């Protein structure tokens, strides 16, 4: 079985727990180490039982708690070379530190992890596509635009966590200084509700039956607006029965990813053992 649970989402801190194929990993550790441990325990998970923490990029809302948490609980950390350098992860001070680069597929027990490049203003940011028991879950936050290679990587997933960061009108009329608005709107910034709608309509495969909208801006978005944009896009695409969840700052409950068919993801790809 493959399942995940968002422990936190948004600018206050991002972290998602994933279990499957006999492995248990954390995607991003943007909450403080104590808060991460508390949220894991309330999910019924012993923090020391994690097999790895995979960091998407070095921004504080994704990497803040990684070093301290990893040291306290003895959990290995993995990220791209750029992320490791920019986050200041020091190999001597951490449990095993592994490099994952875009294009590679890694394995921890029977959980496979495909690393995909994303456009964002960080050193070498990545998205993750995880697969176990024939089900696939993709995790992509902090994405400046829907690059073709990313859309292709997300297409066949059974469940997708995708950022839906801002509503363009709220961002335009909101309190941010213009330079920050430009950064968010730019090709290395964040995805809008409209970008998510475009992906739903044109890029998302029929396999995807659960979409989690994540990393919503508190100032420049509203959960209702993000939901409505995605719902309308699914309706335009004639897709019914797709579950939609908004991940708030407090995260979500467990979400189980069911395989649609026996067509296992990642088959035939070269897999590198991660730890
Ligand atoms: Zn972020
Ligand atoms: Zn970021």
Describe the overall structure:
The longest helix has 14 residues, at about 225-235. The strands form two sheets. An eight-stranded mixed sheet has the order 13-12-11-10-9-8-7-15. The two termini are about 20 Å apart. Mean pLDDT is about 95; it is low at about 260-270. Helices cover about 30% and strands about 25% of the residues. Helix 1 crosses helix 3 and helix 8 runs parallel beside helix 9 (about 225-235). By secondary structure, the chain is of the alpha/beta class. Bound molecules: zinc ion (2 copies). One zinc ion binds near residues 14, 61, 142 and 215.
Summed up:
With 275 residues, the chain is α/β, with parallel strands linked by helices.
Question: How would you sum up the major sheet?
Answer: 8 strands, mixed
Q: What is the count of helical runs? A: 9
Total strands: the figure is 15
Output the strand order for the largest sheet.
13-12-11-10-9-8-7-15
Bound molecules: zinc ion
Q: Sketch the topology as an H/E string, one letter per element.
A: EEEHEHHEHEEEEEHEHHHEHEEE
Q: Based on Cα principal axes, name the global outline.
A: globular
Secondary structure class reads alpha/beta
The rounded distance between the terminal residues' Cα atoms is 21 Å
Helix-residue proportion: 25-40%
How much of the sequence is in beta strands?
25-35%
Report Rg: 17 Å
What does the average pLDDT come to?
A: 94
Q: Which stretches are poorly predicted, pLDDT < 50 over at least 5 residues?
A: 262-268
